[in-house]
Amino acid sequence: MPARPGVMLAAAVAGVALLTGCGGSSSPATSAAAPSGTSSVAPVPATTTPATTGSAGAASSAPRFSKVLVIPMENKTEGEVIGSPQAPYLTMLAGRYGTTTNMDAGYPAACPSLAAYLLMTSGGTHGVCDDASPQAHQIGGSNIFQQVAESGREWRNYAESMPSACAMDNSADGLYLVRHAPAPYYVSERGRCPRWDVPLGSRTGGALHDDVAAGRLPAYAMATPNACDDMHGAAGCSGDSVRNGDDWMAGWLPQILAGPDYAAGRLLIIITWDEGTSTDNHIPTLVISPTTDHVTATRPYTQCSTLRTVEELLGLPLLGCAADAPSLRPAFNL
Fold first, then answer.
1. pLDDT over 70 for what percent of the chain?
2. Per-residue DSSP letter, 139
3. How far apart are CA 180 and CA 162, in angstroms?
């Protein structure tokens, strides 16, 4: 296991809540509301994206990356992770690469996980404010999975403890939760889902290990830890939930960083959280890339920013709230 220094970063004030069509929350909206539909807007051309500030220096005028890996974690605020003695590895990554200090999940804090995953993959919550199955929520409209596939490239959702490919129900042991692996919710992806929504495997073998080792990660990938390893703290999990997630990351990240995709400079990694607590959606988000060096970004962001950044780097139209959200690219030198 790699060295795990505990670098303390300052926690910032709570982020801005961005309402996206999911009702019943007491969280105030302090910025423009994010649309919950799926209308697309053409992205700012990479050649005209302005360079802005960040300790890593000015951003390039053109995207450097052809692949993005998003790792979603669960149910923790920034102050519960960054600087925590239970999260030395993630704290080290935040200091070495890049972190946000003012990121809000972007949807009402009273809504559970599924709304966040829909937001970060389609630009809207589609009015969802529960964690029901794909059978209950058959989401139409465009999404990042469909966009990537229709551009002639591939996506993967690697889900830990998934009992079979494209599983549409939670596993009996409660470790695989389909709402944390959102591809099956999208009607457009039902045909591709059995091939591209797959069990993650282990650090010594399986889909994620093999694709990392061979340098064949797809254009867009989501790697979903199980409900013990994602800090969710599901029933039956032993130990501290933050420590469990930190240990999972400390086991996987060195392998991914040593893989051909990252070594060649074509892979961006975003580690983010779906939500904080039922009252506070100020979440941690880490940006890891060869061009991101000791960046602490204080600008307000949301998961709409995560989606915008992915779509910009992959040359895709901006969906829903991504069209109005600030990109992560300038601050993190992407």
1. 81
2. B
3. 11
